[in-house]
Amino acid sequence: MKVLMTGATGLIGKELGKTLALQGHQIIVISRSLAKAREILPFPCEVVVGDLAQGKIEDKKLENIEAVVNLVGEPVVGQRWSEDKKKAIYQSRIIATENLIKSIPQDVRVFVGGSAIGYYGNCGDTVLKEDHPVGMDFLADICKEWERASSRAPGRKVFIRTGIVLAKQGGALDEMLFPFRAGVGGPLGDGKHWMSWIHLDDIVGLFAEALTNNDWIGPINGCAPNAVTNREFSQTLAESLGKSLGPSIPPLAIKAMFGEASEVVLSSIRGSAEKAIGLGYLFQYSNLKEALDDICAPYKNGEEVFYSEQFIPQAPEELFHFFKDPHNLESLTPPTLSFNIQSVSTPEIEQGTIINYKLKIHGIPASWKTEIDEWKPPFRFVDNQTAGPYKLWHHTHEFKPFLGGTLMVDRVRYRLPLGYLGWLAASKWVRKDVEEIFKFRRSYISRMDTPKKP
Fold it and tell me: Measured between alpha carbons, how far is 422 from 304 in angstroms, rounded to an integer?
């Protein structure tokens, strides 16, 4: 099918786009920024540039659309809900969805709309099926209006009420991991409120199934079969990280930090997955311990993990000559690092090649020596720091053939010096530095039609 996606650059959108592309669907994406879409999206697609919160979009690429997946929406958690923030949440969901429906053909076959498990509001221990009444708080009102807007779309309509998404990169765990890895993470309040969680693989699976299975109609809870209390969640997360459970955090402290937005983390929502299971969906992760063990495994060893993907519309054989030349690393590295290659031990890169660099980290000069541990052109190579600012830096570069192009994957495992104290003092700003380096790299690559030596 010809599928239109909004919110494709988000956590769910990126993984869902890959899944749909592999299934053979032609994907059109609406994005406010062509540059961001080219940098971030890990699948082939056409991009329509526009802001649905500002009005209807007219573009020939939207003709003959057969299906729509609507994931548009500003983040809800992570900051206080000022009046401006509330307005942005409303406009990015309800107004954007209304304008999306005005922008698509009226013979669209299926419209899969985003929603949230927050639709139900705070419901204590009640098991929440899709026919349960809507809640009374701000987020419940947003979900109600969001679904109401989506219900005006043409074709078969499905609304996925997404729970707390657990993922290896991004998602709800991003904010939770630091205190739990530090050994001080604990329950929120008495920890008795219910949490409706779901692994990223499963929420992607639900959206993909909703798109193609005609039996899926109306609201469907996007949560795993076994909801847990916050105390159970906290205990399981601590165990998956090899840590002890820390002290409880008083609700007043959470409310003081997040204000009205604290409703999201303190509400008790015990979602049921009965409808999805009845429709034949088989969850990959029904058990929270299995889901968190899958996500947290690298952290038990004290390592940090950075993961990045980017789709490039050329085959690995066309790209590899650029990336195998170590001198091109200078082009791929932010100028602020003053990155400079001092020596390369072999005329051409091969397994065992030693490369010496000089660079500056926040203005402080540093030396770096890496060895090519693995060399499998044109699909993979690994460089490993043998001397430098990190205790461990292990960078796997992969160039996977993907739908006529290349899915370029960077996976970095790193560990800071000075053990626990080094991690506690510097892990957050080092993580930000690593993210900025790869953001620059993706931006540079996205601007090249066919990568070549500059």
Answer: 12
Q: Fold for domain 2-300?
A: Rossmann fold (3.40.50)
SS3 396: strand
Q: How far apart are CA 311 and CA 399, in angstroms?
A: 10
Position 299, amino acid: Y
pLDDT of residue 451: 44
Cα–Cα distance between 157 and 155 in angstroms, integer? 6
Every domain of the chain and the residues it spans: 2-300, 302-446
The rounded percent of the chain whose pLDDT value lies above 70 is 99
Distance CA 341, CA 370 (A): 11
Torsion angles phi and psi, residue 109, rounded to 5 = -80, -35
Asked if residue 267 lies in contact with residue 137, where contact means CB atoms within 8 angstroms, the answer is yes
Question: Is the backbone peptide bond immediately before 378 cis, with ω within 30 degrees of 0?
Answer: yes
pLDDT one-digit tens code per residue, 94-143: 999 999 999 999 999 999 999 999 999 999 999 999 999 999 999 999 99
Euclidean distance between CA atoms 436 and 408, whole angstroms: 17
Query: How many C-beta atoms surround the C-beta of residue 417 within 10 A?
Result: 13
Q: Phi then psi for 21, rounded to 5 degrees?
A: -65, -40
Cα(144)–Cα(126) distance, integer angstroms: 19
What does the alpha-carbon distance between residue 202 and residue 144 come to, in Å, rounded to a whole number?
23
Report the CATH architecture of 302-446.
2-Layer Sandwich (3.30)
**Contact criterion met (CB below 8 Å) for 355 and 376:** no
Please name the residues in contact with 304: beta carbons below 8 A apart, sequence gap of 6 or more: 298, 413, 414, 415, 416, 427, 430, 431
Which of 337, 345, 226, 331 minimizes the C-alpha distance to 288? Answer: 226
Rounded average pLDDT over 256-271: 88
- The pTM assigned to this predicted structure is 0.94
Average pLDDT, the chain: 94
Note the pLDDT tens digit of each residue in 184-196.
Answer: 999 999 999 999 9
Helix (H) or strand (E) holding 219: strand 218-222
Per-residue confidence band for 393, with pLDDT thresholds at 50, 70 and 90: very high
Q: In the structure, what pLDDT confidence band is assigned to residue 263 with cuts at 50, 70 and 90?
A: confident
Burial category of 452 from C-beta neighbours within 10 Å (exposed 0-12, middle 13-18, buried 19 and up): exposed
Distance CA 113, CA 330 (A): 43
Instruction: Give the span between the Cα atoms of 448 and 436, in whole angstroms.
Output: 19
